[in-house]
Structure formats: structure tokens, C-alpha cells
Amino acid sequence: MIERFPTAEERWPRQGQVANVVTPYKFPKVEIEQHEGIYVVREDKLEGGSKRRFIDRYIREEMSKGANEFVFGGCPATGYAQMSLPLQAKQYGAKATFFMAKRSLDNLHPYQKKALEYGCDIRWVEMGMLNVTLSHARKYYEEDTYHRRNFPLGLEDARVIEDIEELGKAIADEWSAENFSEIWTVGSSGTLSRGLQRAFPNLEVHCVSVGHKMSERELGRAKFYKSPYKFDKPIKKEEAPPFPSAPTYDAKAWPFIKQYAKPRALFWNVGA
Q: Is the pLDDT of residue 4 over 60?
């Protein structure tokens, strides 16, 4: 049975009223396991994955200012944000609205089906190239800037990076940073990698790009690798890691980790 969450109208004030402080959602502890000599952050065990943790403060703080709807136009059909953002917004009775390239309903990606289950309002866009869906999202947000917030591409917000850094530092304190030899992530916008670079300033960081060619700003100080797979093409089963991992995203780092990573490297597995 699916739990009913209060609606935004039930919980949040109209313009001109004073919003309440939002009580933080209590996340389960991050789990880290060893696989083939590599420490793995097993965020595949968290429904919706790591992005839920990283966008939580953004959602709470914006809701305390009156927001009750979160808009995003930068998610591909294989993107994890379409699950993490609606699911976390739902915890607080808020709405998530996504603008995505139109697909027939009998050809939806499993992540898109899950997003709909979580209550995501997907607006299908004809000729939905990234710049087009971003434009639709921005225009929709501008129609009601008090109640709506438009998530930036790559979920790149200072609060998101700060919370990645904070969680990374907590892991470093608990495990003792010297237990890890280096850090590995997958990257598109590089948000996760740059947050972890701040959390582990003395460790080398490696980033496997699965999308566009990352800029120097997006990479930070990370060492760059480029996946040979096209962005929306899943990794071959024989190359996938021995734990659940997003086949079009995180899993694509595993062949590089097996070839280049030092023993005791830490790999952040964002989702399944």
C-alpha cells in the first residue's frame, strides 16, 4: 500500500503568508562495502539514490520560502534525477514537474515509469532536444516564480555541492580518510566529483565521463576518463560491477576502476 503524503496545498501557504520551517527527512546511514578490493558507496540501496540526499536541503529551504513545485528540464530518459527529485519532493508534499523529450507511453524507460509512480508530472515535449526542454522548464517556472523553483542543469547549486562535501567529510571521519587510496566517480556535470574533491583534499580524484566532454571547471582537479559507450547505451553485462549499478551511468566506471584504480579506492555508486 502506498502511503499518502499531504499535498502542497495542504501543507504550504499561499503568497503573502509566512511559511513554516521544514523538518528534515531522516535518511538511512550511507553503507560502504568492499568489492574486489574497492570500497563502494552502496547508494543503490537507497530508493532514488544519492541525489535524494544532495537535493534535500535545497528543497527544504526553498519550501520554507513558499515553493511547492520543483521544475526540471535537464533530465534524459535514462537520468536518475527523474526518480530522486520527485521522490524527495513527495516526502514534503511538494510536486515535481519535468519537461522531457516525447516518447510513446508503451516505450517509456523503466526510470520514467518509476518517476510516474512517484507522482512526477512529466510534460512531454515534441522535438525535445536538451535546449528545448530546458527552455520549456524555464518558461514554466517564470509563470509563477513564487511557488516554483527551476532546478539547474546537473543539479548544480552551491547547497548541493556543500552537502556532498559534508557527507564526504562525515565518511572520511568515520572511516579515517587514510583508509581510502583515491576517489572514483562517474560524471556528466561533475557536481558529485567536485563536492568530493572538497571533502577529500589530499586524495587523488578520478572521474569517468559518460556524457558530453566535461569542461575544466566541471572536472575541477579530477583525472579525466571518457567512457566509450554512448550516453544512453547500457554497459555490457560482462563489464558491469558485481553489485547493482545504473547501467547507463555509474556502472560505466567499473571497467576503468578494474584497470586503473589502486587497492582501497573509494567508488561512489549513485544508484541502481
A: no
Q: In this predicted model, what pLDDT tens digit does every residue of 145-172 receive, in sequence order?
A: 999 999 988 888 999 999 999 999 999 9
Provide the percentage of residues in the chain whose pLDDT is more than 70: 92
- Write out the residue range of the structural domain in which residue 222 sits: 32-46+157-269
Residue 55 CA to residue 53 CA, distance in Å, equals 6
Q: Are 165 and 99 within one domain? A: no
Those residues whose C-beta lies under 8 Å from the C-beta of residue 223, and which sit 6 or more positions away, are 204, 205, 206, 207
Q: How far apart are CA 138 and CA 47, in angstroms?
A: 28
Domain boundary among 104, 127, 155: 155
Judged against a pLDDT cut of 60, whether residue 17 lies above it is answered with: no
Domain count, the chain: 2
Q: CA-CA distance, 182 to 184, in Å (whole number)?
A: 7
Q: How many residues does the chain have?
A: 272
Residue 85, number of CB atoms within 10 A of its CB: 30
CB 125 within 8 A of CB 153: no
- The answer to whether 165 and 183 are in contact (CB under 8 A) is no
Instruction: Give the mean pLDDT of 50-59.
Output: 94
pTM for the structure as a whole:
0.86
Grid cell digits, residue 115: 518517476
In terms of domains, do 168 and 135 share one?
Answer: no
